[in-house]
């Protein structure tokens, strides 16, 4: 069955929360950290820091920023790499070294406890801005204002505002080709399926600038 934009939009709205937030208040950080111990997680995440940065702000767009990402989202992704639901030559191997649930909770909590990822420069991309806010795409509905997430304990959809542009493009392409398919309800696969490479470039450019 061929899905249209309206059906995708309705699916996204049903799956997503209605409020958006963007903040690094003590309350917000506590909620997105979850049950893990960020102090213990700092030491346990030393190997992760080699690619993702000491504070979760990676210097290379080959590796996503994790600073201020939801701990629950990080936890799920590592489990998905471990189970084979999501695959990556580097991360699949790295995830296999974290077999203890508490260790993973602590590592995720450490990166979540950092101030949210952000760009070091503003980006103006009107086409990307229009597409991000268009409710037929649902970007803002799931990822929140400026891509900074929904409610601080709503970890189904990641923080993407300030993420590396090239990393975002790569993930959109992976969702479109179904090389990646661990998104809730297959929403990202449906959304990415409607995007051209130019659309992906525009949206990623716009949202990377926050």
Biggest pleated-sheet summary: none
Helix and strand run: HHHHHHHHHHHH
What percentage of the residues does DSSP assign to strands (E)? under 5%
Structural class: mainly alpha
Give the proportion of residues in helices: 40-55%
Number of helices: 12
What is the average of the pLDDT values? Answer: 91
End-to-end separation: 37 Å
Regions with pLDDT < 50 over 5+ consecutive residues? Answer: 6-19
Shape: globular
Radius of gyration: 16 Å
Tell me what you see in this structure.
It is built from 12 helices and no strands. By secondary structure, the chain is mainly alpha-helical.
What are the SSEs and their pairings?
Blueprint lengths: L4 H11 L10 H8 L4 H7 L1 H7 L18 H13 L7 H5 L5 H12 L13 H8 L5 H5 L21 H13 L9 H7 L3 H12 L2
Keywords:
globular, 51% helix, 210 residues, mainly alpha, 12 helices, 0% strand
Give a short summary of the structure.
With 210 residues, this protein is mostly helical. It has helices at residues 5-15, 26-33, 38-44, 46-52, 71-83, 91-95, 101-112, 126-133, 139-143, 165-177, 187-193, 197-208.
């Amino acid at each position: 069955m061929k899905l249209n934009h309206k059906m995708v939009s309705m699916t996204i709205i049903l799956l997503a929360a209605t409020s958006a937030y963007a903040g690094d208040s003590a309350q917000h950080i506590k909620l997105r950290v979850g049950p893990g111990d960020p102090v213990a997680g700092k030491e346990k995440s030393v190997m992760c820091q080699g690619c993702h940065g000491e504070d979760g702000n990676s210097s290379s767009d080959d590796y996503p920023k994790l600073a201020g990402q939801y701990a629950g989202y990080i936890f799920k992704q590592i489990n998905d790499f471990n189970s084979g639901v999501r695959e990556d030559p580097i991360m699949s191997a790295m995830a296999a070294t974290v077999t203890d649930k508490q260790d993973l909770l602590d590592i995720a909590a450490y990166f979540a406890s950092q101030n949210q990822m952000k760009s070091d420069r503003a980006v103006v991309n009107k086409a990307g801005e229009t597409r991000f806010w268009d409710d037929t795409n649902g970007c803002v509905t799931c990822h929140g204002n400026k891509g900074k997430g929904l409610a601080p304990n709503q970890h189904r959809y990641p923080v993407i505002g300030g993420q590396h542009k090239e990393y975002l493009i790569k993930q959109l392409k992976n969702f479109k080709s179904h090389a990646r398919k661990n998104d809730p309800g297959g929403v990202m696969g449906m959304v990415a399926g409607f995007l051209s490479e130019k659309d992906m470039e525009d949206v990623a450019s716009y949202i990377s600038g926050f």
